[in-house]
Each structure stands twice: as C-alpha cells, then as structure tokens.
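This part of the workshop introduces the protein records we will be handling. An example says more than a description, so a record of this kind follows:
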Amino acid sequence: MPPHPYAALTPDCILDALESTGLVADGRLLALNSYENRVYQVGLEDAAPVVVKFYRPGRWSDAAILEEHAYTQELDAQEIPVVAPQVLNGATLHHHAGFRFAVYPKQGGRTPEFDQPDTLRRIGRFLGRIHAVGAQSDFVHRPTLNLQTFGLEPRDFLSQGGWLPPDLQPAWTSVIDHALQNAAHCFDRAGAIRHIRLHGDCHAGNVLWTDAGPHFVDFDDSRMGPAVQDLWMLLAGEREAQEAQLREVLAGYATFADFDRRELHLIEALRTLRLIHYAAWLALRWDDPAFPAAFPWFNTQQYWQARILELREQIALMEEAPLAV
C-alpha cells in the first residue's frame, strides 16, 4: 500500500508549519490522544505552549473547517467556555506542505464529576447557551446527522466492503436492518423536529472541568442535528440513573434554551446510529497505520459478534418508552 498522507507529518514538518504562522517553537513536541486528526502540544519560546491540530487530508473542505472555526468564535464572543482557534496573520486555517492546520490555546482540565447534580446543571446551562447560539443560523458546508448519514450509508459501506466474516454476514444483515427500521420508527414518533448547529460529539472526554466550570473542546464533528444529540452522551448507567441525570441537565439547559421533549424518542435511536457509524469509521480509517495499532480488536470474529449482540440490545431499547423526565 502507498504511504499514508500522515507519514509525511514529521516532527520537522510540524515545527516548520507552526513557525510559518510567525510563532517560534522551542522544540518541545508532545503528541496528544487523537486519531481522526493529528494533534500536538508544542512549546513556544517566551510564551505558553499551544495545541496544533493537523486536519485529516480529504475529510473536510476548507469551507467546512472554516464553518467550525466561525461557530466556535461566535460562541467564544458570547463568553461561552469553548476552545476556539487562534487568529494568526488574520486567519484561523493555515496551510503548510500539503497539510491544513489550526492553532489553539492550551486548555487544561479534568473529567467532570457527572454524579454530582450541580455539575450536570452547570453543564446543562452552558449547553443551553451553545444551542441558543447554534439555533440562530445553519451550517452550509457541514452535513446533517440523520438516519441516512449515520445509519444507511455506514451500513452500506460495511456490507459492500466485505468487512463482515462470511459466516456472520446473514446475522449482521438481519440485525442491522432491524435496528435501522426501529430507529426510523423512533424518528417517526418524534415527528418534525428542528435541526440546529451542534457540538456533535459531546461526550465526557470533550468536556474539561476547571475551578471556573466546564470548557467544551473539539468541535471537529460539528454538524446540523437534533439538540438531544449533545445531551444523551453525557448519560450513563441504568435507566433510572439516566433519567435522574437528564433531569438535572435539562434543569440547567432550560435556563437558556427550550428543549423539545419529543426528542427524547431519539435517544436510543441516536445511540444505535452512533454504534453503526463508529464501526464504519474504524473500517474507513483502517489504511491509517495508527488504527490497527490502537484498535487491534477491530474486524475480528469476536468484534462483529459483540456488535450483533449490541444491536439486538438496542432493538429492544428502541421499543421501550423514552426516558421520563
């Protein structure tokens, strides 16, 4: 196979790229945990370190990246705690040696204590503010999270790419089709819901907690979609625990934005779509040497057996009543 494009992203290339913006690196370079893109903490002479993100070649257009940047800058201008890219030489998106990159301030923090009601309410308040801004206009160059983009297209990619072991193909086809039918029923029950600009990947790892409260990072997956997409990934545990957590999040959220409770019908459907999309994402990125090294369990017999069982469980959950808040 030809070398992956990221093979050319050497330490010298990273430092040269940063210095092309006018910043002077001191040689310190630390790779951060990221697979979709490549992200590094870089030390600067006489200044605090910065975080440099090199976008995966071919994934987003320049226009789509700039939409993400503009959204986070819009939020930052409203004093909402997000980490927005720095403006250097009048731009947030830079080019060097065939790579596109952005520079961010380093933001420390810890994982929030999601078992604390006050923490959930504070996160809910800021999500309400994020969505209040997100609802003011639409993305033009970024996709929409729906049954087609997160369900049908990933299903077809996996099925047509020969990723499934032959002996599991019939079971997989049956269960994924059933799961997507149930997901469609969930969307039908919710009815015509509004799509807004989202964070898109608001899981615990993308919320950093400091003494001042939460900071939201990594808007790389921003897209149009239902508001509940940014809420359900904060929930964990059994149904009763999730309902209690969601009540606290919505108590804070309602301070700044209205929540359409019909979207509660979508939680398990969105969880199902994320599971399908994640499997397809791993397959799509398998030519990147970082993926076989980081996910050696992918595409094994045991992996697909577990996904079949997982989807069967989701089929049952989608047939239950939505969470009660």
In short: The beta strands are 25-31, 38-44, 47-54, 94-96, 99-105, 196-197, 207-210, 213-216, 224-225. The chain has two domains: 5-105, 117-318. The radius of gyration is 21 Å. The chain has a mean pLDDT of 96.
